[in-house]
């Protein structure tokens, strides 16, 4: 994912909306202790969802909130802007070996819009299981089918962009082409040892108020290292593919203020250890 924290903070409206709706729906399932709950947010990005959204759903007497992300730049930004005596951020790769001091350390694990970047899904879910204490729970939301992945694949076949998108499938959700991803995830979680597993797929849409808003949102999560002097050209070609594939629907025809709708599927997974 792009590690420009300022750009991500300004352009992740979709992610924030889905995080709020998911937390509203699942808040009743989360079993808080009487005090001192320890919480981890996996893939915290710039820290704004961790501090400004997730924290609103925590009891006042929670103990510790840690946000982790694979991006050093994101973690540095999060610590500068959101760290305090109970909240901190650190670099961690959920797809690699867990740091010893984090094993069996948390009562609750959350992750918003991160797990679709992970290829070794079983490794990531097993690590989440190992982060939790006995009786701990997790709430995870991530992308299933998303048109942006198909656009990347088309661009990867072009001579112009192939050098930068040669590993395109590394950045496509493992569930993008799966017919019933919720069943596959449920079986995997239960085999790992999770109890009370609930996995849902929801068909969603999001309306961007302009083409410029679409470009910023795509740029904020673009995982490919496109040279800075080519980024505008890349986005123009990206939008041309979007139009050719008719992946974004017009909401209105006002050319001065074109609103567009993006359709996608969201996966929500809940389980206890």
UniProtKB/TrEMBL annotation:
Keywords carried by this UniProt record: Methyltransferase, Transferase
GO terms for MF: methyltransferase activity
InterPro entries tied to this protein: Methyltransf_25 (IPR041698), SAM-dependent_MTases_sf (IPR029063)
Domain called Methyltransferase: residue spans: 39-136
UniProt-listed GO biological process terms: methylation
PANTHER family, A to Z: TRANS-ACONITATE 2-METHYLTRANSFERASE, TRANS-ACONITATE 2-METHYLTRANSFERASE-RELATED
Protein name per its UniProtKB record: Putative methyltransferase 235L
Species the sequence originates in: Papilio machaon
């Amino acid at each position: 994912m792009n590690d420009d924290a300022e750009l991500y903070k300004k352009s992740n409206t979709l992610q924030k909306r889905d995080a709020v709706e998911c937390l509203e729906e699942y808040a009743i399932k989360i079993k808080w202790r009487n005090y001192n709950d320890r919480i981890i947010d996996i893939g915290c990005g710039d820290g704004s969802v961790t501090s400004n959204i997730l924290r609103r759903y925590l009891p006042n007497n929670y103990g510790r909130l840690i946000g982790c992300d694979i991006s050093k730049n994101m973690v540095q930004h999060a610590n500068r802007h959101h760290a305090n005596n109970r909240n901190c951020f650190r670099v961690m790769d959920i797809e690699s070996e867990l740091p010893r001091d984090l094993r069996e350390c948390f009562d609750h694990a959350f992750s918003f819009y991160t797990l679709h970047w992970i290829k070794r899904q079983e490794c990531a879910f097993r690590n989440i299981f190992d982060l939790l204490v006995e009786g701990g729970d997790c709430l995870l939301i991530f992308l299933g089918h998303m048109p942006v992945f198909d656009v990347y694949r088309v661009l990867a076949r072009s001579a112009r962009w192939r050098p930068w998108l040669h590993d395109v499938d590394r950045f496509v959700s493992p569930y993008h082409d799966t017919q019933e991803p919720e069943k596959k995830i449920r079986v995997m979680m239960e085999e790992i040892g999770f109890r009370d597993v609930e996995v849902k797929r929801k068909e969603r849409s999001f309306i961007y108020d302009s083409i410029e808003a679409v470009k910023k949102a795509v740029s904020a999560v673009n995982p490919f290292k496109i040279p800075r002097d080519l980024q505008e050209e890349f986005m123009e070609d990206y939008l041309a593919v979007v139009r050719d594939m008719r992946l974004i629907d017009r909401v209105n025809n006002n050319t001065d203020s074109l609103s567009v709708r993006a359709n996608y599927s969201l996966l929500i997974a809940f389980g206890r250890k």
